[in-house]
Write a structure and sequence with these properties.
With 221 residues, the protein is of the alpha/beta class. The protein is built from 6 helices and 10 strands. Helix 2 runs parallel beside helix 4 and helix 3 packs across helix 4. This is Amino acid ABC transporter ATP-binding protein. Keywords: ATP-binding, Nucleotide-binding, Transport.
């Protein structure tokens, strides 16, 4: 479902990604581990189109992405859950989720609300649809962000440090929800520093050090 081939990226002549290659299949969770500065965030931003890359390929469901023009071919197929959630503070939970289906997919409000209500049920927040982000805990905001990222029905869902601001109870809840989307056949890519979480969740762990894939015993977290 997701294949990264010899991906390279430099900033100001400093090579951050030095030829990264890996695959994640449908219904599989891949976790990228490495210490700060290893290139993890740059990798996920390249996959999501938030950064351009210098060379290599990103292949989504057999569609090859080499530059920004190719991104149009996979519009909506990669979802992203940001570390700071990025919810619209002036929108209710329901409005946060229906925005993308209406604007990007051209869904009617009724169709978008049905999608949102189904997703809120999946993340156990059906009773919060009329709440605003400031009324929610960090864990609840994380789950709304997951629902919003899935509103375009992506084939791949990416997470940037999903457990960094959560307590043990909320980490367990996020694990349960990620597993539900995996069971629906979604390919999931997670960037994390949390070794215990990663080893419990991952079908595949991708270790990165200084922009290169390395063996487990070569990486420091």
């Amino acid at each position: 479902m997701l294949k990264v081939v010899d991906l390279k990226k430099s900033f100001n002549n400093v090579e951050v990604l030095k030829g990264i290659s890996f695959e994640i299949e449908s219904g599989e969770i891949g976790v990228v581990l490495g210490k700060s500065g290893a290139g993890k965030t740059t990798l996920i931003r390249c996959i999501n189109g938030l950064e351009t890359f210098d060379s290599g390929e990103i292949i989504v469901d057999s569609i090859k992405i080499k530059d920004s023009n190719d991104r149009k071919k996979i519009r909506g197929q990669i979802g992203m859950v940001f570390q700071n959630f990025n919810l619209f503070p002036h929108f209710s939970v329901l409005e946060n989720i229906i925005e993308a289906p209406m604007r990007v997919l051209g869904k009617s409000r009724q169709e978008a609300e049905k999608i949102a209500i189904d997703l809120l049920e999946m993340v156990d927040l059906s009773d919060k649809k009329d709440s605003y982000p400031f009324e929610l805990s960090g864990g609840q905001q994380q789950r709304v962000a997951i629902a919003r990222s899935c509103a375009l029905m992506p084939k791949i869902l990416c997470f940037d440090e999903p457990t960094s601001a959560l307590d043990k109870e909320n980490i367990q809840k996020v694990q349960e929800i990620i597993t539900r989307f995996k069971e629906r056949g979604m390919a999931i890519l997670i960037i994390s520093h949390d070794v215990a979480f990663s080893k419990e969740m991952a079908d595949k762990i991708i270790y990165i050090k200084e922009g290169l894939l390395v063996n487990e015993n070569e990486v420091e977290i």
